Amino acid sequence: MATTGEVFRQNLTEVLEESPSGVDELHVLAVDDSLVDRKVIERLLKISSCKVTVVESGRRALQYLGLDGENSSLGFDSVKVNLIMTDYSMPGMTGYELLKKIKESSVFREIPVVIMSSENILTRIDRCLEEGAEDFLLKPVKLSDVRRLKDFIMRGEVKEGERTSNKRRRSDDCSQSLSTTFSPMSHPCDPCSSVLSVSPLSPSTLPSKKSRL
């Protein structure tokens, strides 16, 4: 018969294994020059049990990742980032420029990057997706967006070939689409994805991804 101490240790181990603060915790680097927007996204991510690091500029993000070209106290071994969420319009370095820097890095290029913007500009969206952005969210970002992103990342990324194929199909077939949120995981030509306030990872906009999630 197990002693009280053994039962306690067993229950404690199970709690630690299931806890969001365990080894499977999602670490998100959030980049935005707006203090208000930084607070909003930080709160949404923490509500979703994510570890959050917030910085106010693209330059600061590069410094945190050690990609600023200078000697950094942080190396890849100490920077474990699972997802990067960045605003598009920022002074000094835009979210698009930050995206390019990350995708040029042999160390961090596989990390999913999500672009956020309060402006729905199709050419901007296309450019970001073609450069390798995982998703493009229209502000204000909702809790449902964050939770679906987290679920998608935690369950595993789509294969690179599928991502590239989806982007190409989307570009060829929907160059004039005016959806509010875009991603290589959703198809803007779908009737439901052209409706305002539909999050990019919602089941209604992801018929082909639902089985993989």
SSE map:
Layout: H1 4-18, E1 27-31, H2 35-47, E2 51-55, H3 58-65, E3 83-87, H4 95-104, E4 113-117, H5 122-131, E5 135-138, H6 143-155, H7 160-173
Parallel strand pairs: 1-2, 1-3, 3-4, 4-5
Description:
This protein is an alpha/beta fold and 213 residues long. It is built from 7 helices and 5 strands, in the order αβαβαβαβαβαα. It has a 5-stranded parallel β-sheet with strand order 2-1-3-4-5, sandwiched between helices. Helix 3 packs parallel to helix 4. The radius of gyration is 19 Å and the shape is globular.
Supply database-style keywords.
about 210 residues; alpha/beta; five-stranded parallel β-sheet; about 40% helix; globular; disordered C terminus
Structural class comes to alpha/beta
Average the pLDDT over all residues and give the rounded result: 74
How much strand content do the residues show?
A: 5-15%
Q: Major sheet: size, sense and barrel closure?
A: 5 strands, parallel
Which blocks of ≥5 consecutive residues have pLDDT under 50? 7-23, 71-77, 157-161, 163-180, 187-213
Oligomer: single chain
Topology, number of strands: 5
Distance between the termini: 41 Å
Question: In angstroms, what is the radius of gyration?
Answer: 19 Å
Q: What shape does the CA trace take?
A: globular
Strand order of the largest sheet: 2-1-3-4-5
* SSE order: HEHEHEHEHEHH
Helix count equals 7
Helix content, binned percent: 25-40%
